[in-house]
């Protein structure tokens, strides 16, 4: 049975990339708590919202948005706040871990990579602060990854953004803590979303990764839900500026 966090009932929650992969599991998990959910993503999520309404009796607000377009992202957050009240839980989840080598990166590719994996995180945080301040506080959860902790090769632009997210979260936690706005990072391990399975999961790669985990089970999107709910809720009211790792124990062993 999933954990229940009564203080999340009717909370106004905004998630980037909330209609697929980990984001879809988060949307479902928050809806199960009775929250008011709004989420953005580029692809159409109407069918997903239909499913969520059938399962939970509560329809999430889907707002089409390319998060690299900052004015459009801010407008989506304003629309969510107008419908659900000031956003008190922000989950920056959307990212793109496209593989690339250092030598093939151009300035244009670098800027594109950061425009998805780092820049919108900052400006979503910035835009959420005023509403959280008015509401008397809030919780921001910024998704990072263990990839930068491990020094993984194969996507240096992405790992740079992940490390930046961790540093940004610590600085914002210090800046806005006096206003009861908490900012934490969450670093998943290799979560086997459908995208990961389609693009990069092979029996050999998965076996090698499981060998590095202390816990030998595969990590599913649903395994990330309760940690996020915990960080969103008052159960973690004295946690801020932290990086919560959910990876089966990979970074323990390196």
Automatic annotation (TrEMBL):
Entry similarity comment: Belongs to the short-chain dehydrogenases/reductases (SDR) family.
InterPro entries reported for this sequence: NAD(P)-bd_dom_sf (IPR036291), SDR_fam (IPR002347)
CDD domains for the chain: SDR_c
Name this polypeptide is given: SDR family oxidoreductase
Keywords, alphabetical: Oxidoreductase
Pfam families, per the entry: adh_short_C2
